[in-house]
Write a structure and sequence with these properties.
SH3 type barrels; globular; five-stranded antiparallel beta sheet; single chain; mainly beta
């Protein structure tokens, strides 16, 4: 994942350090040295994610109108 997705809402599949899979929708705030800082829409709070543990990522498309 790179900086072009900052400010976007992205759906990720993430492997936690406890080896649990989760699907999250996040609003990416920053990317720095293998870490993503984001607001998690599922947990309703700021979270840090390791880039190496993101198994899949896709921008969320929002239709207006």
């Amino acid at each position: 994942m790179d900086e072009k997705w900052i400010g976007a809402i992205v759906e990720i599949v993430y492997l936690s350090k406890n080896k649990n899979l989760s699907k999250r929708k996040i609003n990416m705030l920053s990317v720095d040295q293998g870490h993503i800082k984001a607001f998690c829409l599922v947990r309703q709070g700021r979270r840090n994610f390791l880039v190496k543990n993101i198994l899949a990522a896709e921008p969320v498309v929002v239709f207006i109108g």
